[in-house]
């Protein structure tokens, strides 16, 4: 009899369903996790919500085979350490999405009609009707940053209010955006034009502090900002400095740490909630049901869908998944941010052809930070379908003798269609990029910091680039300079000891009249 430990407040349906299938279930939301783990060292399945599962917790459960996160985010679980211990980690994506989408609408209505302060005032016996003159949601412009499960559901739930929806998502296809009724926009356009702005993006190195004073200054007076995503994406001090001047309303449901105690944001937020986004009976039930059903299917049928730290199949080196990630990342930057990719085309040569589906996850991860590179191929296929991105795996001519190589091309736009692609392989156990768009024989090992500059071929460009870098004491480690005879364009790739600042990239682009200039950093 397998033992399942559920050390969290999860709907009892999960325990009932598992017990009916012969599992021994311990459901205890009150005893501290370390004590529970010590008392149940024979646990084989751990089902959690937001509990932090560290290597120390994992080491105390020698029989542990599966960890299930009853929810989407799994950043509280050390999935890499679990993999080292041959433990699969699953999540239940989408189980909480509708609850969060509805919470956002509740916040929009509550702050627009001043429901919380009006309730408090009326309870004191006051009658301040004129003080609480509000606004209607109908007909307004709503901006949504992040159009994944939650963002798309929010669009649907808003449809009855006849709002105009502006959306930012780096990978949502224009076709799907049109189907949803969303106008794809830049972040700046959303902050400048929207009456309501709702954040649904992950927190990572790229997004941390993204929502800051520069964006707050663009907002309409009286606009509403809602954060039900992650606290770190918003610079609270910047908002505090400008909130009164711009008369911005702010609703918040996320914090650096979910715990009792004073909240630094209390003076800033017009509505502040204790992370209630997923806190509905329906969401809890759905997450519990999904967690139990996935556990049963995992052991009885070998179903590994939604495993987020899946091991590689025999015969495939993890290096090739890293290569797929790097090629896609480079192509995405080269494509530019003015359009989201609507199609991905891939070519796998030699023995890599039989592992094509295992490249989908690293490709998805390169396009969206919230997608883990080691999620399952099924998850990746679902992800691309959800984003409206077509994936085409082309037939290849192995007579070209590329060996174990791959090409990944991204397409965006409609008229004209823009394309960016890269080819690479593994040489002496190192990643090697052999081509970027029409620049062949690049032979670039991508680890570290690289400055890419494309320009109409002319003498002296490399020297001018080197001179500008030298003025700022940036050392050049390596230079690659392929030329495309057909187009008359050249590409200079400079590997530097430090990342080149964006202002310096712009200066180089202007100085050499470059077509493209960008920084690419990869640290495995």
Describe the structure.
With 524 residues, this protein is α/β, with parallel strands linked by helices. The protein is built from 17 helices and 22 strands. The protein has helices at 13-20, 33-39, 55-59, 79-84, 97-112, 115-123, 149-158, 174-180, 187-193, 213-216, 236-246, 281-301, 318-335, 360-367, 377-387, 461-471, 502-511; strands at 3-6, 24-27, 45-48, 66-69, 88-91, 141-145, 164-168, 182-184, 196-199, 224-227, 249-252, 271-272, 341-348, 390-393, 405-412, 418-427, 430-436, 448-456, 476-480, 483-484, 489-496, 516-522. The strands form four sheets. The protein has a seven-stranded parallel β-sheet, with helices on both faces. It has a five-stranded parallel β-sheet with strand order 2-1-3-4-5. Helix 8 (174-180) links the parallel strand 7 (164-168) and strand 8. It is globular. The protein starts with a strand and ends with a strand. 41% of the residues are buried.
């Amino acid at each position: 009899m397998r033992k399942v430990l559920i050390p969290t407040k999860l709907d009892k349906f999960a325990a009932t369903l598992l017990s009916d299938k012969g599992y021994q279930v311990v459901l205890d939301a009150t005893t501290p996790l370390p004590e529970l783990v010590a008392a149940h060292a024979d646990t084989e399945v751990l089902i959690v919500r937001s509990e932090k599962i560290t290597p120390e917790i994992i080491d105390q459960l020698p029989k542990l085979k599966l960890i299930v996160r009853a929810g989407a985010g799994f950043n509280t679980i050390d999935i890499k350490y679990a993999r080292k211990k041959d433990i699969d980690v699953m999540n239940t994506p989408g189980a909480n999405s509708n609850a969060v989408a509805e919470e956002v609408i509740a916040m929009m209505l509550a702050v627009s009609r001043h429901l919380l302060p009006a309730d408090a005032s009326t309870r004191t016996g006051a009658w301040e009707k004129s003080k609480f003159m509000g606004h209607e949601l109908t007909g307004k412009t709503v901006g949504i940053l992040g159009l994944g499960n939650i963002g798309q559901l929010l669009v649907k739930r808003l449809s009855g209010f006849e709002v105009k929806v502006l959306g930012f998502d780096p990978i949502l296809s224009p076709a799907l955006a049109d189907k949803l009724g969303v106008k794809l926009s830049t972040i700046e356009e959303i902050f400048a034009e929207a009456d309501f702005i709702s954040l649904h993006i992950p927190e990572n190195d790229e997004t941390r502090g993204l929502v800051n004073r520069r964006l707050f200054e663009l907002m309409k007076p009286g606009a509403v900002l809602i954060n039900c995503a992650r606290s770190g994406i918003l610079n609270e001090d910047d908002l505090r400095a400008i909130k009164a001047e711009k008369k911005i309303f702010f609703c918040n449901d996320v914090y650096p740490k979910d715990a009792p105690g004073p909240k630094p944001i209390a003076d800033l937020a017009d509505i502040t909630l204790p992370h209630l986004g997923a806190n509905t009976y329906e969401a809890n039930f759905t997450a519990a049901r999904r967690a139990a059903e996935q556990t049963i299917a995992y052991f009885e049928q070998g179903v590994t869908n939604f495993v987020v730290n899946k091991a590689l199949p025999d015969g495939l080196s993890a290096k090739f998944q890293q290569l797929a990630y790097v090629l896609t990342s480079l192509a995405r930057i080269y494509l530019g941010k003015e359009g989201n990719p609507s199609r991905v085309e891939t070519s796998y040569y030699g023995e890599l052809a039989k592992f094509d589906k295992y490249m989908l996850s690293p490709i998805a991860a390169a396009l969206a930070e919230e997608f883990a590179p080691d999620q399952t191929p099924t998850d990746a296929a679902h992800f691309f379908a959800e984003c409206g991105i077509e994936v085409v795996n082309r037939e290849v001519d192995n007579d070209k003798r590329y060996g174990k190589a791959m090409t990944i091309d991204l397409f965006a736009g409609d008229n004209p269609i823009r394309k960016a692609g890269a080819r690479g392989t593994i040489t002496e156990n190192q990643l090697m990029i052999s081509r970027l768009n029409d620049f062949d024989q690049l032979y670039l090992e991508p680890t570290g910091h690289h400055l890419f500059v494309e320009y109409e071929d002319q003498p002296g460009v490399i020297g001018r680039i080197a001179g500008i870098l030298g003025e700022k004491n940036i050392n050049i480690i390596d230079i690659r300079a392929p030329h495309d005879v057909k187009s008359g364009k050249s590409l200079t790739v400079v590997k530097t000891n430090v990342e080149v600042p964006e202002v310096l990239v712009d200066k180089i682009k202007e100085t050499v009249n470059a077509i493209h200039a960008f920084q690419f950093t990869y640290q495995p």
